[in-house]
Amino acid sequence: MALTLMLLLPLLAAIALIAIPGESTVERGIALGSTVVTAVLAVVVVSGRHEVDVPWIRSLGVRWHFGVDGVSAALVLLTALLTVAVVAHALSGPIPRGGTGSTFLGCVLLVEAGALATFMARDAILFFIAFEVVLVPMWVLVRRFGDDHVADETRADAAGRFVLFTVLGSTLMLVGILFLVHHQGTSDLAVLAERHGAGLSRPLQVAIAAMLLLGLGIKVPLWPLHTWLPSAHTIAPTAGSVLLAAVLLKMGTYGIVRLAVPTVPEGVARLSPVLALLGVVGILWGGLACLVERDLKRLIAYSSVAHMGFVALAIASGSETGLQAALFGNIAHGVVAALLFFVVGDLKEQWGSSDLHVARAALRDKAPRFGLALVVGLAAALGLPGLVSFWGEFLALYAAWSPAPDRPVALLRACVVLGAVGLALAAAYALRVARIVWAGEGSDAAVGAAAEPVADARGPRWAVVMVLVVVIVVLGVLPHLLLGLSDTATTGLLSGLGVSP
Amino acid sequence: MSWIVRMIVVLPALAALAGLLARRQRSLASVIAVAVSACVAVLGLVQWVAPSRTADITTIGSLPLGDLSVPLHLLSDRLSGLVAFVVALVVLGIQVFTAWYLRDDPRYGQFAATVSLFASGMLLLVQSGDLVLLLIGWEVMGWCSWLLIGHDSERPAARRAAYKAFLVTRVADIAMVVGIVALSVQARSTDLMAVLTASGDDTLLTVGLVGIIIGVAGKSGLVPFHDWLPDAMEGPTPASALIHAATMVAAGTYVIARLFSLYAEHDGARTLLAVLTAVTMVYAAMLALAQTDLKRMLAYSTLSQVAIMLSALAAAPAELGPGAGISQLIGHAFFKALLFLGAGWLSVLAGATALAALRGRLRPTGALRWSMGMGFAALAGVPPLIGFFTKDTVIDAALEGATAGGGLRAWLVVVALFVTVALTAAYCARAWLLLDTAVAASGELPEAAPAVVAEEHVAVVTTADSADDAEVERVHAHGHAAITLSAALVVSVLAALTLVGTLFLTTLRGGLHLGLVSSLLSLLLVAGAAYAVWSVSDRGRLDVADRIPVRVRESAVRGFGVDTAYVGIGRAVTAVARLVVVLDRDVVDAYPRATAVVARAAGRAGERGHRAVPSLSLLSLLAGVVLVAVLGVTAWR
Lengths: 501, 637
Known about the structure:
The complex is a heterodimer.
Chain A: H1 2-19, H2 25-48, E1 51-57, E2 62-67, H3 70-91, H4 101-120, H5 124-133, H6 135-143, H7 152-184, H8 189-195, H9 202-219, H10 228-235, H11 238-260, H12 265-292, H13 296-317, H14 320-351, H15 363-366, H16 368-381, H17 388-401, H18 409-438, H19 459-477, H20 480-495
Antiparallel strand pairs in A: 1-2
Helix pairs in contact in A: 1-2, 1-4, 2-3, 2-4, 3-4, 3-11, 3-14, 3-20, 4-5, 4-6, 4-11, 5-7, 6-7, 7-9, 7-10, 9-11, 9-12, 10-11, 10-13, 11-13, 11-14, 12-13, 12-18, 13-14, 13-17, 13-18, 14-16, 14-17, 14-19, 14-20, 16-18, 16-19, 17-18, 17-19
Chain B: H1 2-21, H2 26-49, E1 54-58, E2 63-65, E3 68-70, E4 73-76, H3 78-101, H4 108-127, H5 131-149, H6 156-187, H7 192-197, H8 202-220, H9 228-231, H10 237-245, H11 248-258, H12 260-264, H13 267-290, H14 294-315, H15 323-350, H16 355-358, H17 367-380, H18 386-436, H19 450-457, H20 466-478, H21 485-500, H22 502-505, H23 516-536, H24 550-557, H25 562-588, H26 590-611, H27 616-636
Antiparallel strand pairs in B: 1-4, 2-3
Helix pairs in contact in B: 1-2, 1-4, 2-3, 2-4, 3-4, 3-10, 3-15, 3-21, 4-5, 5-6, 6-8, 8-11, 8-13, 10-15, 11-14, 11-15, 13-14, 13-18, 14-15, 14-18, 15-17, 15-18, 15-21, 17-18, 17-21, 18-23
């Protein structure tokens, strides 16, 4: 009951908000109230491991089958709690221009509903439907509410790219799902995981795995399918960037873990060298691009490509430690990217652009709150031990060094060395940003408005940023809060025992 | 007892948090910093005096990670107790000294909090019984060093030095991470005890041990990673003291000492370490002789001394254990903290750190003069100060290694050690003569306008002197404040420790191990080198380093252009990065764009195909077909 309510509440609230145009306190109340209630429900659902399973579309055999298990618990919480932060952040400032406030909030809620449903779907078809729900609202957020400093065409290009890339991805994924469902005769993910690829010939497994990995890889995004991400991130409003990085990208890696790894294990094993290589190329490619990127938001987008590369590498290892690392890295990147996008979004709002080559006053003394949040975010982005990202990355390297028996050891070990090089690149670009923005490299040349210090974070915005900082530190110091959630689940996914809620 | 070990790690971290929250209230921040480090020092003393020998002190519980066991245990024995105590002592001294030294700095609170966090990182590393915890402490120190070196982030040189320090050490850490991963894969566990007892894959062991040596080379400043350290003098002097004395730079020694039983069995890895340390100790000692800035001279001497610690681990025979290296670590902690804090004090008095500006400034300073004298004597290895004992313990261990079948590796270390002993005595004598000989010829005391003196008298004005600028600026901004009693006491206590600190080493296995012949030989070398400097410098009236040809000296002061090499590597990586951006735009993204173009063209073609008005004949044909069909159907019925 709580589960269905949790899924329907943001959906209905979103429909209500989009239906009632305008911008009054009522809409704001609806948006904030429904996200808060959803978050509370999410905590209830996760702690009680709720599940719901009723017939839905009888003729297709599709069931209304949602549930939480170790693999999805952390993601559900992340999505629900982060949306509260996004809405609180949006309400405490001007709504981006481009449409009414209620449309904006409605889209945010719709993304939340879709993401929650994706993470909880226990049926492959249902997964696909939920996966698609987020597409249009996100398009609206980028297209209508995107950065109004750039030409309309640029916004259209970014939003169009986002939609076309992801639609291509989900189409491929759909073909893969249909193949799978056709040959296994069921779309129930638990059954599919239990069969563990039994009854599928190896070439068929490879074909299905290829389609699923390719389709979901666009969403992750894996190199070289990433080119939609930087432009979407740059143009999207803060709320859009945060949701995109923290929630939408996670749907890709989660999809791989949920949909591909347990159902077509042999196929995934066959393709894991490719996955590892693409992941590592992404790590290096993203890290290098960040070294010279001028636009701060684009830079963080490229760093996302690098971080998701570690997740891909961890999945490719095929070991239990690897899956743990992947799920941990997923959450870690979600929190860190959210923090960075909140901070950078606010800065961009005040600066009018996020060009690093414009000389500006340093944050360090003039805006210490932003400064602290930025420095913590960057420290986490470079994988500083004691902060959340370290565990995902270190464990990914460990897992890739000692992969499952059927993986190419030499190749994966080479990938580990290159991935470690990526850690040094991450340090270089993170400190580059810190040196320019926080310590004020070149700030002496700042003139006019750029020489004025930015107004520091205040009120709900400061609270949002602070909560994320605390989460980054706490999960970094106590990683088993997260690892414990997904522990037994990963064993099930790999051994074919299925995942008990 | 295990709570003491935990507290030693946790308390400084909490102090860092509290200090950060209380950064606006200066006095509160300094009370937190000093009080907590005092507590930690007391706890460290307890742990050292009454060590609980245990390797399974739980921290946050073991991590559920499938086949990898990560118990995250702390470990406590006499070694960790001693090192933790010394670290805590030095940190306490630095915190007390900082409260005076940065008395007018608006960022004092942040600085003190960072020092606390740094201490927490080092203490975690010392107490860790788990490779992951070790790595955490290791990197936390690196991050704090970035903050500390870049403390005066208004100055471009400080920003650059901080960036350089973190980046160079992080590049070395690539190998460190891979090494730790390899060792844990071999043991299927990150627990130190499991790693030490794991047997099996030789390749993994080699990768692990060599990787850790490279990582250590980064943080400890072995060639070719050494050049970040002299630049790190851009940080305020207490930060330099902290980084150099007992923590980050020396941490590598402790790490390798913990893994010593693995290294003792592995000749290849130890040979690498021996070559790196031998080269570094001689090279850095030679550069120290040529420096024009007191702090940079001390930095090069740190490089040389840390290489001595590590060389003990490279050459000592397996049965002797890592005691000699740790003993040098502890001795160095005392006298280097003393020298740095003394240099900080002197620089406040004189308003500069350039040796030319400091000439003769030590003479009228009483306690400071005595303390610095003891510090230099300890560094040079004059008995009965601690430096003599620790250095000769290292030499003796290396000799024993050489005679016990260590071969070329150990002999290389022995020769390098003797050369370094002579060079160390020479640069200490030079520094002492410069600082202590009254500038009588001109008759005027350099009291007048110290900053101008600094600029005019510096023989070689290079970028290397910008550490001096920091000091000059600081004094200009805040004036020559008289030292507080507590800060002066810190320096005096450290001076006393260079004398009595030797007693600490008696509890360490293999910590004091002197050979008669080698001690006599090194004494002879010290005396000879000091006398040579004394006579060449005409009893301190000249600077010995002025005898070096100007061009050689200039490039020596600049570290022989290693920085240029680093910049070159940086440029190369940036060039690759630019290429990546171009490829990203013009190749990877070309396919989507091409698809868009093709789709649009197809759409246009399709549109054109449909735009034309159908011809009359086609229409009548269609009408005819429909008519025939209708007729046919009706007729059928």
